[in-house]
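During the no-cost extension, the postdoctoral fellow (Dr. R.K.) reprocessed legacy sequence entries with the updated structure-token encoder. One reprocessed record is reproduced below for audit purposes.
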Amino acid sequence: MIQQQVALLEFDREKRAKFSPKNFGLEKCLPEKCVIAFFKSAVNEIAEQYRAEVKTYISSCTVNLPVYLLNVQGEEIALVCGFLGSAGAAAQLEDLIALGAKKFIVCGAAGTLTQSPVGALVIPDCAVRDEGASFHYAPPSYEIQADKSVIEAIGGFLQREELPFRLGKTWTTDALYRETEEKVALRREQGCITVEMEASALMAVAQFQGVRLGQILYCGDDLSGTQYDHRDFFDRSDIRRNMVELSLKCAREVL
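Re-encoded structure tokens follow.
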């Protein structure tokens, strides 16, 4: 590791850290396939529908997230609500890997930077790294690429389901309330079609740990116009529930 003027650029290729999830007693208990969904209510509803077992918890000082074990048409798949933001999402993915998961479908909402209806599906194949966690898992770069094989598999699955989607670049940021007009315009010029808070970190952790991961986003709030439009995307419970169901089916069929 070479010291830099900016600490975030000091990537260390050493695989071993001072401590890991194993130091907190995490042992393998999950199936290989796991869905991470950033919709708490939908996750709980789906878990109840499937009469899912709570297999374990992802715990922190502020929240305990149950990891459910679902039987989806004869196959066991883990389901958990995601931590908001790159740092929490990265640590959660590390924990899930330590618990035995190796293949991930992640679903969430994103702000749209182009004119897209609420609920429009996006598969991010690349992310602008405007967050901090990914720089601890991959050498410094402006962007990071998603797992091509998983992205192609997800795209093929959505086509078979006759569900339209866009494949493209997303902007991952740590600062929810610092998405300024100038930055939005720049990211749009760079080809970003969505903005969210976890994608680049999840891509980096997955690549560092050698696991498979792909994402499906739905367009929620709208940042494409002169005025921000919330579009009540928090209340789109039908879309969020459908996203979780879709991701479970996707995990079963393509991973």
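Residues 108 and 249 are 16 Å apart (CA to CA). Helices lie at 40-49, 86-98, 148-160, 181-189, 199-209, 237-254. The remaining legacy entries will be reprocessed before the final report is submitted.
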